[in-house]
Amino acid sequence: MLKKRLVAAALTGAMMFGVLSGCGNSDKSAQTATPSGSASAEFAASETPLELSFFYAGVAGSPVFKDDYPVFQEAAKLTNITLKGSVPQSVSNADQVFVTMMSSGQLDDIISASKSDFDKYSGQGAFLPLEDLIDQYAPHIKQFLEENPYLKKELTSTDGHIYYLPRVERGDTAKGWYIRKDWLKKLNLEEPKTVDEFYAVMKAFKEQDPNGNGIADEVPYFDREGNLKAIYNLFGIRDGFSLDEETGKIVYGRCTPEFKEAVKTAAQWYAEGLIDQEIFTRGGNSREYMLGDNIGGITHDWFTSTSLYNEKLRDKIPEIDFSAMAPPADSNGEVWEDTSRANNSLFGWGISVQNEHVEETMKYFDFWFTEAGYILSNYGVEGEHYTMVDGVPTFTPEFLDSDKSMTVTFYEQGIGLYIGSEQDFNAERQWMTEDALESINLYLDNNYIKQPIPRLSFTEEEQKVISEKLTAVTSYIDEQEQKWIFGNESVDATFDAYLQKCSSLGMDEIVEIYNTAYERFQNS
User: Fold this and answer.
1) Which residues lie below 8 Å from residue 95, measured CB to CB, with a gap of 6+?
2) Structurally, what CATH architecture does the domain formed by 2-170+344-376 represent?
3) What are the respective helix, strand and coil percentages of the chain, to the nearest 5?
4) Each residue of 156-194: pLDDT tens digit?
5) Shortest CA distance to 424 belongs to which of 449, 395, 453?
6) Is the pLDDT of residue 5 over 50?
7) Among 61, 79, 202, 359, which residue's CB has the most CB atoms within a 10 Å radius?
């Protein structure tokens, strides 16, 4: 009975989307040989070896899918299902490749995409709803969603269906404040606890030659992501859309009256040379440059990678102590960190309406939520990437001894890709430095991290408005912000007009849509 309903749903979706299987994609799924051996009876998702086409163009910094990833070859041995990547390794524009595929009518069996893409194209009939499939074929996913009801709410679309399964990230910490503590010690200063103290420390770094070279070349604050989000946090302004705790409503921080104080002060600090004069243009290598040249004083960045620099630069700068500090209290006296890892990743995978092996695909999805799949997706292949030590999967020293970043090393093996699975944060802890672990514990133990708003689902009409207007208004915001920071325009003279322009470009309408979606989420 369930199969009949699925066939009917697939046909309906295909007609809506204009992608009936007669369009020439009939060979995208095929019976094929497994890499070696036979599937495990416990995890077999198909009675016979099966190949499924897989669209994965590289998301969130991960690369285009490769068929020979050891992790997915091992999964094929266990499940009898092999994934065949459809995206050329040479692709340079993942978004364009995705749009081209979706508009072509030739859909792969399994498609990796963002939440907004699933929201958009599921409304056009491109993806199958998963909840009945989960009930019938995926007991581990079903249990996982029952144990994580908040996540299930985030996954549920406005029509009540679930169309994709995300990479569920664990571990709240992501970024924090870093400061040259050796400079503080040299200048007899304490870690800044308030905005005023933060300003005083920056002034001292700028004027008192903490690097000792006799040149006023210090750059008190720098940021390799090319923005002032962390500076604005010091004035209570959160990045992007966030929940106003007083009103219970969603706001866009840089389009609120409170933003005036933040950007006005940032412009003053920039004029005084306390902020990197090339902060908007220096690019991703600014951390390497600022620390390597012994001129950067403070930044806000990722714990794991930033904590590597003390050892990395020890031979060149023996005294360096670039370590995490607690967030300074904002102008309202509150101590908090804005950046966190949202448990529901923005990316995951779903089943296209052209998939002719729906039952097997759902069972394959379920495998990744078994203990074996959980370990495989996080640690790789036993004996090749990890061994069991006292019942705990532990990366081998040989695997961790890489001349590349661990993120790249993992991706090259197929570990940690953005498929429907759950992250084990303890895997990441194993390759962190002691500095990184101490930094993370500082933020976790003191409960500094503010949670983001939930991943909201939008109707097709709501998504259309957001798509049409958000880019224009944020581009205007960025342009006007830089005019103020560079001193080209007065904040006092133009801020009211700025808020009016934000509104006329559509930000008020977008914020209203977000609040409507948030209310739906709360009531679901």
Assistant:
1) none
2) 3-Layer(aba) Sandwich (3.40)
3) 45, 15, 40
4) 999 999 999 999 999 889 999 999 999 999 999 999 999
5) 395
6) no
7) 79
